[in-house]
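User: I'm putting together a small comparison set for a docking exercise, and I want a reference complex before I start. The sequence is below, and the ligand is pyridoxal-5'-phosphate. Could you produce the 3D structure with the ligand included, as structure tokens?
Assistant: Of course. I'll restate your input first, then give the structure tokens for the complex.
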Amino acid sequence: MRNWNFSAGPAAIPEEVLKETQSELLEWNQSGMSVMEVSHRSPEYIEVASAARQDLIDLLDIPDNYQVLFLQGGATLQFSMIPMNFAADKTADYLLTGSWSKKAIAEASKITTVNTVASSETSNFQNVPDAAEWNHTNDAAYFHYVANETIQGNALHQPPETESPLIADMSSVILSEPIDVSKFSMIYAGAQKNIGPAGLTICIIKDEFLATASNELPGMLQYSKHAESDSMFNTPPTFAWYLAGKVFSWLKTNGGLEAIAKINHTKAKTLYQFIDTSDFYSNPVAIANRSIMNVPFILKDSNLDAQFLHDSKNAGLLNLKGHRSIGGMRASIYNATPQDAIDALIEFMREFEKKHG
Ligand SMILES: Cc1ncc(COP(=O)(O)O)c(C=O)c1O
């Protein structure tokens, strides 16, 4: 039996998608084999791959002057590829708002000069620093930020205003609501939250910015090589790409990003409201910066954490443990997690509080 899965990633995948995949697993598209066994260069596979790319373009309304790449290496490889390609001889600006921006900065620092424009580390990343206090570099190679910090559960809900090319790690927020892609020089995201299985990384890069990328790196590290070869510079993660395509179709069938955004905002609102009205649970993130995808919360008495996790698991509510670096709980409520799951979680939390509060 499938339970509600609140994992931060790899995360829940829509059940309809899994069922459809199951029905095609042994034999796909009358090919006499599974999709995993088909050549990535075959016309049948290229059709699936192109349809997935087009559906992503439609969903995000990506303008024509952007490349949409299906790569490997996770968002973590992007932490290195970005400075390698774009910051060879210039300072790169980074906003430090949580664990993932910290990792991005650590990797970039090995390659280029990093200017941390602002940081909320001293307040445990419970907010995003006020834009008025950001210390930009003139003529920076780019400005990098993490739109949604998966671990701390904070988010920047609007793209920042900056003179330099804007790059966003959208791993845990992509496809949760519409965005204006034209504001960005580059957006990237690991797939294992709102896109599909791990092993696939999406990069959306503006042509004008791509033209400034290094041509001297090893091929696998050059964005332009991936763009020239339609993301088939080498064998791509064919199964993950195929499955991501199914998730994109599922989103389109269910009304696209406007529709899912409404559902996501209601889900988050119900959960935060419940937490805020309780004395037993709390969420430390500044209200304006609260994530709609990852909701960390702590219990008044951390001695009850183990009991909470034990009982919630028995109640069919999985993976509520907070990240090991900050403790407490975290409910990740991506697109594939419906309102019913939130309602079940709140009901459980209410009962737990009654028993132990
Ligand atoms: C915001 C963000 N950036 C980067 C990463 C790293 O992704 P990956 O494990 O795909 O390299 C994660 C993973 O959870 C994330 O949430």
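The first strand starts at residue 4 and ends at 5. The pocket of pyridoxal-5'-phosphate is lined by residues 9, 74-76, 100, 146, 150, 169, 171-172, 190 (CB under 6 Å).
User: Thanks, that's exactly what I needed.
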